[in-house]
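Chapter review: from sequence to fold.
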Amino acid sequence: MNSRFHFLLLIPVAALWLVAASQAQQVSQVQSSSSPTSSSTQHGGKPASGAESRLDAGSVSNGAYRNQGFGFTVKIPEAWVLRTEEINAREDDEVASTKEGRAALDRTAPSAPLRAGEGGCPHTRGCGRVLLSAFSRPPEARAEDVNSSILIAAESAASYPGLKEAAQYFGPVTEIAEAQGFKIVNEPYEFVMGTRTVARGDFQKNVGTRVMRQSTLAVLARGYVLSFTFIGGTEDEVEELVEGVSFATAAKPRSH
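The token string follows.
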């Protein structure tokens, strides 16, 4: 891809998901009380400050995640488990535990918003948020097959100076993917999905006797980069997850 741009300390959420996948998708222990997709689950949590306050957290009900603010819906397979709130809380704790992280949180307060080129944003807090994290089985449960999963995140486009189109987002994503042993199956390309122009990149990695496949979609919307990351053990499985994404006209922001 010829189009390149400088990015600061922020590692794309899609790339972080690739790193997690390369480590057998094992994450730290999370509460076992998370609700399955069969019940209606609100993902708003307590109101956030700074850039996050402009994010529509969306909600899960009747087997689908819906986000009216960004204008999209994603189907979630039956009986999958959600880990959105736990992942956001864990990442917040990790950032707050470091001096640099506390400074980043301070910069994202309403009185001092983070500006592009001002030290970057080492974390999704203040720059964006994980909107949905869903797994075919609890991520702490070990098994031989690939734990299929969906990750949707919104990151501030201002954190990527020079970012003009969604395909550019795959510059840093691809670099980290290759460093983790993933191979590019299809070079990033753009296509139209509903009302949006979407960029897509496909990766895969051999994990023992298995092949882990990942497809990431990226969209620019309302000053954010939306990334949709799907992981599965077969191409058909990943494609079925991708086909569960639909875009419509986003809701207009409320005037204050």
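Two observations follow directly from the output. Residues 84-96 form the longest helix (13 residues). Residues 1-10, 23-53, 104-126 have pLDDT under 50 and may be disordered.
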